[in-house]
Design brief:
binds pyridoxal-5'-phosphate, 12 helices, 7-stranded mixed sheet, alpha/beta
Length: 406
C-alpha cells in the first residue's frame, strides 16, 4: 500500500471514534502527540472531576469528604476498572499505590504462597521496575531468577517460558504487552503452562489496559498489576491497580501491613488483622487527588469500548508500519515491532543509529514521540486522541529529519 495524505484524511473522516478527541483538553490541535503510551492526554471529564475534588470535596467539605466520598474509592474504582476493562468481577481489583509498589506486594505475596519453591521466571525484556522488584525479592529470599533472554521484536515465546518451568518455580512475572516492541505475549498459554507446574502467573498490564482487551478470568490469571496513566489517561503518577483472583484472596497475604488494609481500620486495635477480600491489599492513605482522576478516565474508555478502541489501534499501528515501509526502511530505520497487527499492542518502535538526533529534530517540528535508549523511537498511538493524520505527519517528518546515507 502506498498512502497519500488525502487517503489518510479520509480514514479520519470515517473513524467511528473521531468524536472522542473533542472530549480531551487539546489546546494545540496541530501538535502531533505520539506519546500517549507514556502519558495519556487529559480528558475534560477528568479535569472537571479533579477540580471538583479540590474545590468542593477538599476546599469546602474538608475532612467529612473522607467518609462521604473518599474511603471506598480504591475498591469502587477497582470494581469499575475490573468489570469494564479487565474481565474481572467486583471485589477483585483495587486501585492504590504505584505500579512498582503494587508489583512488589503481589510478587511477595505470591512467593509466600509457594514457600518450598526456589525460582522465579521473568524476561530480560521486561520493564526495569519489574526486573528490579523480582531481583530484590529473590535476593532477600535466596531464590533463583530464571531469566528469559531478550526476545527481540516478536516478544517472549511460549516455549521460552515453558523451558524454564518446573516444580521449583513459584511464579512467572511477564508483561502482557512488551514496553519496547509492543509484542503481545500469549497470556492464555503462558498462564496455563505456569499452572501445569503449580506456579502462579502474575501479569503486568501497563501497556495493554484500555487498549488491548484482556479477560483475566478467561485467561485464568492469578495476579495482575498495571498503571492508569498511559491509555487510561488518569494523569502523571496516578495510582496503579492490583487484581487478585477471588479464589486466591484467602491464600495470599500482601506484605505491607498498614491501617488501610486492616479489618475495622478505625478501631485502631492492637495486632494486624487483614480486611476481608481485596481491601486487604490497601496499605496507607491513598493520594486522593490522583485517585479521583482514575474514575472518569476509566469511564471514558469504557464508554468508547475497548473492542472498538482495539480495532482503531490495529489500524493506526498498521498505518504506521505501512508508512515505515513507504519512507523509513530505505533510510536505514529498522522496525522493532511485530508486523502482524494481531501480535502488536498500540505502539510501533523503529530504530536507527541517528535516532537520538532525529528525536530532538522531531520535537522542533511539533512531533512528540518517545525515545528509548539506545536508538529506538516509540510511536505511541492512543486511539481516543491520535488521528490517522498524526501518524502520517509524524512519520513523514521523521523521514524528513533522517540523515540520508552518503
Ligand atoms: C511495563 C511497566 N511496568 C511498570 C511501569 C512503571 O511503574 P511505576 O508506575 O511504579 O513507575 C511502567 C512504566 O512505564 C511500565 O511500562
Amino acid at each position: 500500500v502506498s498512502w497519500s495524505r488525502a487517503g489518510v484524511v479520509e480514514l479520519d473522516r470515517v473513524d467511528p471514534l473521531a468524536q472522542y478527541r473533542r472530549r480531551f483538553v487539546i489546546d494545540d490541535d496541530a501538535l502531533v502527540y505520539l506519546d500517549g503510551n507514556s502519558l495519556g492526554r487529559l480528558s475534560i471529564d477528568t479535569r472537571d472531576r479533579v477540580v471538583a475534588a479540590l474545590d468542593q470535596e477538599w476546599g469546602h467539605s474538608l475532612i467529612s469528604s473522607w467518609e462521604d466520598r473518599w474511603l471506598d474509592l480504591p475498591t469502587r474504582i477497582g470494581d469499575l476498572l475490573g468489570t469494564t476493562l479487565l474481565g474481572a468481577d467486583t471485589g477483585e481489583v483495587v486501585v492504590n499505590d504505584s505500579t512498582t509498589i503494587a508489583l512488589y506486594k503481589a510478587v511477595a505475596a505470591a512467593l509466600d504462597a509457594r514457600p518450598h519453591r526456589s525460582a522465579v521466571v521473568i524476561d530480560e525484556d521486561n520493564f526495569p521496575t519489574d526486573r528490579y522488584v523480582v531481583a530484590s525479592l529473590a535476593e532477600q529470599r535466596g531464590l533463583d531468577v530464571r531469566w528469559i533472554p531478550e526476545a527481540g521484536p516478536e516478544g517472549v515465546a511460549v516455549d521460552a517460558v515453558v523451558e524454564r518451568l518446573d516444580d521449583d518455580v513459584a511464579l512467572t512475572v511477564l508483561s502482557h504487552v512488551d514496553y519496547r516492541s509492543a509484542a503481545i505475549l500469549d497470556i492464555d498459554a503462558i498462564t496455563k503452562a505456569a499452572h501445569e507446574v503449580g506456579a502462579l502467573a502474575l501479569w503486568d498490564l501497563c501497556h495493554s489496559v484500555g487498549v488491548v482487551p484482556t479477560d483475566l478470568h478467561a485467561s485464568d490469571v492469578d495476579l495482575a498489576v498495571g498503571c492508569t496513566y498511559k491509555y487510561l489517561s488518569s494523569g502523571p503518577g496516578a495510582p496503579a491497580f492490583t487484581y487478585v483472583r477471588r479464589d486466591l484472596q484467602a491464600q495470599l497475604r500482601q506484605p505491607i501491613w498498614g491501617w488501610f488494609g486492616r479489618a475495622d481500620q478505625f478501631e485502631m486495635a492492637p495486632g494486624y488483622e487483614p480486611s476481608p477480600g481485596i481491601a486487604s491489599w490497601l496499605t496507607g492513605t491513598p493520594g486522593i487527588l490522583s485517585l479521583v482522576a482514575v474514575e472518569p478516565s476509566v469511564a471514558l474508555v469504557a464508554e468508547a469500548g475497548v473492542e472498538s478502541i482495539r480495532r482503531k489501534s490495529e489500524k493506526l499501528t498498521a498505518l504506521a508500519v505501512d508508512l515505515y515501509d513507504q519512507w523509513l526502511g530505505d533510510l536505514g530505520w529498522t522496525l522493532q515491532s511485530p508486523r502482524d497487527p494481531a501480535r502488536r499492542g498500540s505502539h510501533v518502535t523503529v530504530s536507527h543509529p541517528a535516532a537520538r538526533q532525529a528525536m530532538a529534530d522531531l520535537v522542533e517540528l511539533g512531533v512528540i514521540p518517545d525515545f528509548r535508549r539506545p536508538d529506538g523511537i516509540r510511536l505511541g498511538l492512543a486511539p481516543l486522541t491520535t488521528r490517522y493524520t498524526d501518524v502520517y505527519d509524524g512519520l513523514q517528518r521523521l523521514a524528513s529529519v533522517t540523515p540520508t546515507r552518503s
